[in-house]
Structure formats: C-alpha cells, structure tokens
Amino acid sequence: MATDTIRVLIFGAHPDDPDSKAGGIAALYSQQGHQVKMVSLTNGDAGHHAIGGAPLAWRRRKEAAASGACLGCEYITLDNHDGALLPTLEVRHQVIEIIRAFEPDMVMTPRPWDYHPDHRYTAQVVQDALYMVTVPNVVSRVPHLSRNPIALYLYDHFQKPYPFTPDVVVGIDEVIEKKVDALHSHTSQMYEWLPYNRGALDEVPENPAERRSWLRKVLEPRLSRPADLYRDKLIEFYGEEKGRQFKYAEAFEVCEYGAPLSEADLKRLFPFFN
Ligand SMILES: [Zn+2]
C-alpha cells in the first residue's frame, strides 16, 4: 500500500445511509486511487412494507454491494437487526474491530441527533469506539491502533440541540451521476420502501430507465441543499469562481472525539481544492 493512500471509513445505520451522505466524496477518493469502505451497522431487514427478515437482509446486502461498485468502494452490511440497533458493548466491539482492521485516516459517522433511533445509536456507537481503538486491552484479540483516527460527522438538517456546522465542504458535481447510480442500486429502498413510507408508491415508474430519471428528480433538492447552504465554505475552499459554480456538495464537521484535523491533515486528506 502506498503511504500516500488516503483511507476513509464511512459508517451508517442502514444500507443507503453512508452513500446518501458521502457517496460523492467516496467516488472522488476512488477516482484518485484512495481507499474507501462503507459500513451499514444494520442489515436493513425491517424497512419494507411487503417483505422482511432474511430475504430482505440479503437483498439489501446485494444492493449495498452494487452501490459500492458504482462508487469504487467496498460496502458491507453487518447482521444487526434493522430498527433494533442499540449502543451495546457488543456493537461497539464490532465497530472497534472494523476500524482497527481498516486503519483509516478518517472515520465518518452520523451525528447523535437524528429522527431515526438506528441513526442516533450508530452515532453513539461510533463515538464510543473512537479513542477505545487505541486501548490494547479493549478487544485484545485485534491489534490496537497507535493513533486515534480523525472523525467527521456527516451532514444532517436537524437543528436541536446543535445545528450541523461544517468544517469541510467538498463539491461533487463531477461525480454526481455516479452518486445517483449508487443510490439507484438500492431498489428496495428508493423504489419500494421510501415511496411507500411517504405515500407515493403509485408515482414510481415501472421501467428501470424511467425510474433512474424519476429518482434523479426526487433526489435533486437533497443533493443540491449542502451546496446552497454552505456556499460561503465552497468559496473559502475553492475560490470565488469555482465555489459559486458547484450545484452539488457534501459537508463534514469535525467530531472532537477523533484526532484533531490540522491544517496539514486538511491539505493531505482533501486533495480536491486545486
Ligand atoms: Zn437510515
């Protein structure tokens, strides 16, 4: 492994969470030959109106792997039940093992303030695993890390108790179609469960090509929101002209429980701003 390879580990609760929040930056890293791994802490076996259990979990696992293939990264789903994740020692130890095995420069996680309990507990568990990855007697069967990784929160729109405050914003226009392709891979989410859950199942086209363009339109407000919200940061990082042009971006906030993000780290770990 080249020493200048950047290693990024992105956690989410469900198959489609890591790529929804960081699929663009994952594609940018992969294009440059860096290593990204996405991990869903649950197997996604609850979020559906017509199927469930193991058949749903297997479908979600395959869809996640297909999404990872679109982005050029590995995408795994753990076997914890969906809708039932708790911040237990067992799950913390699973996360510690994964972080230690991957040896990431950066870990990305949701924040602990979110509408879904699985999202909140994913954040709790990842925060709980940080630092402990450096403690030799914790999960002693896996060698500990000599250094706590940098940790970043993924964007969300929740305002209480603290609104998301980005430290880094990355323009993703050049890979936006890859991100949509990745999300398009989650058939059981994008075309079945999520439309059902919002009462819009009858709007979903039958034809796969029509579905992809329907999804693109449905996702547009969500995909473009971070660039609009954090335009000043885009200008700060890319300069006035380029910063104004981005339609799509992903935003990240430093989590204080990881290693601090120094100016040198920022330059090395985000090779996108020239
Ligand atoms: Zn989710």
Produce the secondary structure layout:
Blueprint: E1 7-12, H1 17-31, E2 35-42, H2 53-71, E3 74-80, H3 89-102, E4 106-109, H4 117-129, E5 150-154, E6 168-171, H5 176-184, H6 187-197, H7 208-229, H8 231-238, H9 240-245, E7 249-254, H10 263-269
Parallel strand pairs: 1-2, 1-4, 2-3, 4-5
Antiparallel strand pairs: 5-7, 6-7
Helix pairs in contact: 1-2, 1-5, 2-5, 3-4, 5-7
Describe it for me?
The protein is an alpha/beta fold. Helices cover 45% and strands 15% of the residues. The chain has ten helices and seven strands. The protein has helices at residues 17-31, 53-71, 89-102, 117-129, 176-184, 187-197, 208-229, 231-238, 240-245, 263-269; strands at 7-12, 35-42, 74-80, 106-109, 150-154, 168-171, 249-254. A seven-stranded mixed sheet has the order 3-2-1-4-5-7-6, with helices on both faces. Strand 1, helix 1 (17-31) and strand 2 form a beta-alpha-beta unit. The protein is globular. The mean pLDDT is 97. The structure holds zinc ion.
